[in-house]
Structure formats: C-alpha cells, structure tokens
Amino acid sequence: MLLATVKGMLGNKLRLILTATSIALGVAFLAGTLMLTDSMQRAFDELFADASSGTDVTVRAETAVETQGATERPPLPSDLLAEVRQLPDVSTAEGSVEGYALLTGTDGKPIQPQGAPTIGASMPEPALLGEIDMRSGRAPEGPGEVAIDASSAEKGELAVGDSTRILFRNGPEEYTVVGIVGFGDADDLGGSTTAYFDLATAQQALGKEGVFDTIGIKAAEGTDDETLAASVDGALPTGTEALTSQEVAEEASAAVKEGLAFLNISLMAFAGIALFVGSFIIWNTFSMQVAQRTRELALMRAIGATRRQVMRTILAESVILGVVASLIGIAIGIAMARGLAALMSAFGLSLPTAGVQVGLDTVLIGVGVGTLVTVLSAIAPARRATKVLPIEALRDSTPAAAKSPKRRLVIGVLLAAAGAVATAAALFGSAPALLIAIGMVGVVLGVATLAPLFVRQMAAVIGAPLAKRGVPGELARQNAMRNPKRTASTAMALVIGLTMVAAVAVFAASLKASFADVLTSTKADLYVLTPSPDSEGFSRDATEAVREVDGVSLVSSTGWGMAELNGVVQQFTSIDPKTVDSVVDLGMVSGATGDLSEDGVLVHADVAEKEKLEVGDVVPAVFGATGEREFRVDGVYDVRGFVGADYVISTEAHDRVDPQRLEGTTMVVVDDGESISAVHERIDEVLVDHPDATVMNQEEFEGALGGLINQLLTLVTALLLLAVVIALLGIVNTLALSVFERTRELGMLRAVGMTRGQVRAMVRWESVVISTIGAVLGALLGLGLGLALARALADDGIDQIAVPGLQLTLYVLAAAVAGVLAAIGPARRASRVDVLKAVASE
User: Fold this and answer.
1) Closest to 215 in 3D by CA, of 120, 97, 94
2) In 347-404, which residue ranges form alpha helices assigned H by DSSP?
3) What is the pLDDT of residues 816-838, one digit of tens each?
4) Is the N end or the C end of the chain the one with fewer CB atoms within 10 Å?
5) Between vectors from CA 835 to CA 834 and to CA 840, what angle results, nearest 5°?
6) What pLDDT score does 401 carry?
7) DSSP for residue 551
8) For residue range 451-490, what is the model confidence (pLDDT) as tens digits?
9) What is the pLDDT of residue 133?
10) 842 and 708 in one domain?
11) Is 567 part of a structural domain of the chain?
C-alpha cells in the first residue's frame, strides 16, 4: 500500500507540485519569522554584551516602577563615586550619564533612527571601553567636542573635523566631530544614534550636573563579577543596587525583545493566515483527488483492501507530502527571513540581525506544523474515500452523494454565529484578544460551510455578463455553477486573504477620518510637532522660539509620558491649563481645566465611573525618575480627542516628575487679521535652528498622519500578499485538476468545432468567476470585521466610520485580473487536449 501511495503521488506531478508549493510557502513564512526572531534576539544579546563588556559591575538607582520602553531611574549623587572607589576589589570606577541628544547631518536635518532612541552619553575611560572602539579620530576631551557612532556618521555624511548641531532637551548646541566609534562589528547600538562627550560636557548638556545615572566598576585582579557585585551591593545605601555586566546586558536585551514582541506576534499571525489559506487548498485538492480516483479506490476495495487501508493510503500520502513540502518550506524560509528583514527596513523599521539562525526548534516546528495542517486537511477527504463501494468500480460514472442542505445550513450558521460571538466578546468585552483570531476562524469556516448553498447563485450573477463573450463565456459560467461545493472551497482560500486586506483598509480609513475629526474640532491654526513619527518629541526651547514669532497669538503645549496611575502602568498626557481651553474642548463633566493645579489630575469620565472617582479624590501615582506621588482629582472630562489618554496632568507637574521631558505637540493660534500662511513661513524660518521640530497646518498634519497610516496599510497588505498568492495557486490547482477531470468533455467540445482559443477563454473566464466570488465574499467579511474593529475602539478615539468603497472595488477587480493570470497554465493545457484520445478516454 505504501508503494502504491508513492506511485500514485508521482503519477500526477503537477498536482503534487502545486499542492506542495501551497504548503511550502506557508511553512516558509512561519520558518522565516522564527529565523528572523532568533536572529534579532541573538543580535541584541551580542550587541548589549559588547556594549557592557568594559565594565564588570554597574551601580544604579532602583526604579519605583517598570514602564514600557526605557525605564527611568532616579540619579545617583556624585559623592557616591568616591565611596565606591574605596571599596575592596574595585580596580576602576567611573560615573556616567546618558540622555536625549539628536544628531544632525551636514544638511542640517536630524539623523533620525527608525524607532530607536537618540542617545547622548559620557565617553567611558579607556579601562571601561570594552567593545566600544575608536574607528577614527580620538575621544572628546572638552567642551564643543563629540564622538559619534559610525552609522550616524555615514547617514549624516559627517567626518572627523566636521561641525554638527546637536539638539538637547533644552535646545541645540554646535559641536565638532573628533571621533567615529563602533561597537564590535556593529556600527551602532541597535539602530540608535549615539553622541559621546567627556563627562563634564555630558553632564552640562544633558542637564545632569552633579549627578550620575550609573557608576561602572572594573574588578581587581582575581575577583569574579558575582563576588564583586554582592560586595558592592552590600555597601551601597538604600535605593541603589549593583548588578554584573551580564545581568545588565540580559536585562537590556530582554527589554528590547519585549518591545519587539508585538512585531513577532504579528508576523506569526500572518504566517498562520498563510497556512490557513493553504489548508483550504490541501482539502480541496484531496477532495478532487478522491472524486477522480473513485474507480481506482473501488478496485482496491474489490481486490481486498479494507476501509482502514484506504484511509491509511490517503493519510500516508498527506504525511509524505506534508513532510517533504515542509522541509522545502524551511529551506525557502532562509530567503523569507532575509526578505522580511528587508521589508521591515523598507518601511522604516531597521532591525539588527546576526545572520540567519536556523535552529533545531525552527525545523521541528516548521515540519510539525506543516505536516499537521496537511494531515488535518486530508482527513475529511480520506474518510470519504473509505466509503467508496467496490461495485462502483464497474460504473462508468459515479454520482456524488448529496448531503442534506438543512444539515449544512445548521452547521454553517452555528459555526459563523459562534465565531461572531467570540470575536465580539474579545472586541467589546473583556475576553482575551486571542478570541478574535479564533472567532474569525469560526466565521470563515461557517461561511465556507454555507457557501455551497449560495455560491451557485453568485456564479450565475457574476457570470451573467460573460454571455456577451459567446459560447466560451456561457460555458465558463456554467462550469462555475456546475459544482458549487468545489467552486466555494476554491474561492474560500481567496476569501481569507481578502478579508484581512479589506478589514485593514476599512480600519485605516476610519482611523484617518477620526483623526481628521479631532483636528477640525481643535481651534488651533498651526501645529508644531516632530518631523518624524519615530521621534520622542522636541525641545521646549523650540516652543519658546515659536512663542516669540510675530503674528502668534497663543501657544499651548502638550506632552506625554508613562507612569503607574491608580495601580496601572499607562500613558498620561500633560497640558497647559492656562491655555488649553483656547485650542481644545475636553468636554469637562465636572471641574474646569483652568483649575488643574500642579498637584492635580483630570480623569476621563469612563475611568472616573469605573473607579468611582470624584473631584477631590486622591489618585496614587508612581514615576520612574521621581518615585511615588499623589494627585488630587481636579476635574472629569469626556472627550479624549487630542489628549488621547485617561489621565491628564499639567505641564508644570510633568516637569517635576520628569525633568527630562520633551514636548509632544504645540498648538498655535494666529492673531486675528494675520495670514496663517505668513505666520507659517515665519515659524518655518525660526525652526531652522530647531530641526527637531516642524510646523504644519491642519491639512498638512492630516496628510502626514494619513501618509503614515497608508504606509502601515501597505506593509500589512504586502505581508498578506503571500496568503493571496497561495490562494491563487489554489485556483491554478483546482483548474488543472478540473481540466484533467473534464478531458472527455474538452475533447467533445473540440470535436464539435470549438477552437483552442475558445477553450483557453472558457477556462480563463471560469477562473475570473471563481476569483471574483472569493473577492466579493472577502470584501464583505472584511468590511464587517473592519467596522467591528473601529466600533470596538470608539472609546480610544476612533469614533468615525469610513468605508473606502473605491479601494474595496479595486481589490475585487484586482482579484479578477489575478484570476486571469492564474488560469494561464491550465487554459493552455486544456487547449492542447488531443481530440481523438480525449473522446476515446474513459
């Protein structure tokens, strides 16, 4: 039986190749994601290990709260350094500081890293440099000198001796580049920019005079790191701690990995979608194969094969196919990992990698998942194969057993309803987000079950215009209607990819419409913000410069930060209570924005109701740099709009809890009678000296965010493209098998006068009908999912619904065109059917 299975597989190489390709591409995406993740993790491990290799032990202040991103810590008093140097087994000890410093290139524009921080730091002394090496020039030795990382030097076209303007939290300063540094084999620290100064200059520029962020220690000869760390930690005052360099490196690497977890999960989700699409193709292929091998299977039963042996034959074929295709997919996954990294980089997310890592776990997961999906997809067709009776081997044709439409209707409705309920529970309730994926699988399976009940009618309507194409068009329409179950299962592979693409398009359109509504609700004429969405913010010095521009009537700044508020780590927004009412309406339910004090907080109405907070109540807060603090509720507001947070404090309070804060957005109101465009130009001129900020009017601001949303939409669509390609392979597979199945029919058509061109047209139009059915169903499901996502986030600011009708229509038309391309191979094969052999074939 095993030999017969292998021979049967090799007997139809086209079917084997097309089905294996569907599995291989899905596994390739999964394996590529795992390889890329492993590569990034190893790169960050090596990078942070190299960066901290110069020190054996690091002394730092303990943090009161762990926030997302870079954890803020209180500073260390400078006199602690002398105490540390007196400790036994300490060979060398040096204080260091680090903060925000944005480099600019020779063109005066910021060298903005893609999602990574812009670091300014004191240059370690030679004994503590470790893997930090001077590629050219020397270390900075006094005011006005800086050494920069090699990557920034290349991007900014800077060399030793060049002048660069560096932007700090308190404004820009001019420096001369005296050195170019690297970090082992890397040109930068994980994509970040780094500017090194001597210690005194760094303390002055970063606003940390008289304090250190950390103290680096080199152990004396013969002392291991763990022993030294324990010794130092025991001698330190309360609120400080000592860690080995390995612990610091692992902690930093873990923080970065945690920040990238969303990216990893997203890529795995796209891989799952590709495999889900592939499972439909496998199921459809095995179903058609069983139908076409009815006589063969019946003969096997007639000569003594049991149902169990027939079942084993089909499942053995699926196991062999799954293993071989999965191994091919893992090999393709190496190129996929590189492709994913290049795609991320093209869309502004450049990540360090340490070469493609092909671990044993990746191979096992890839082969296991690919084989499991293949076998599960083949079980239902295999069970049907066991029901083939020996007597059917004697029949010229075997009518398919018709299943009760009522049973199909009940099962389909239950699956779709259960999926919709699960999705709604995650979107609108407190159920975990994983239920969204599970719910969508249920909805898709439900629609797939119901599709044969209505797809015949869809094919009739969509194919109606083909009657004008003559006999080939009408036959194509009838072919799509002939086997609704097959047409539905083929179209469903395309439905999944189009559902996700359409959902993202609807969500993106609603997001843009909501943001436009927020902007139009403000009274600002102009907005000062960062030129790049990746920036942390811009200096307060830029806001002060804008305030002095002729024609500016009012300036109101906002900022943001992370803290533990009322026991939950979350984002907060800061506003200027004296001016905010002139530019934004927060919809105050109680209290007034003008009453917001330095010790007060405004709370959103939903949170106030949930936590039972009223004006005068106390909200406990914990900040990384300044520790615990209590705020008094000074008001309750109902419109998140521009602030986009549940808690709002004053800019004065923000300055106290985070002395290193940056501006987020500054809203500008122009004097009555002044030209907005004229004031816009004046602010542009002022901001030449502050390149970390730019000015936009409402239309430009809306367009900038719309461009960012469109970029993300394009990235998601590109990642979903593989699922669509797999779906199109499924159409190719189905048409190829259908051509084989209809050999006699095609021969008869050719015998009665149909030309080869007409045969090709018939197959092409059939593919167009199937593709369009899949696209229409996908667009409708995607529309529903996109609207549900938008409504679920109504309380988070997405309160407008927008349906990109033209975009969805283009998706459907693109699917029809793709159907033509998918039919090229099968159509050519159909047109080459030998008339005499086809008519004589059984």
Assistant:
1) 94
2) 360-386
3) 888 888 888 888 888 887 776 66
4) C
5) 100
6) 47
7) T
8) 889 999 999 999 899 878 888 888 889 888 988 887 888 8
9) 86
10) yes
11) yes
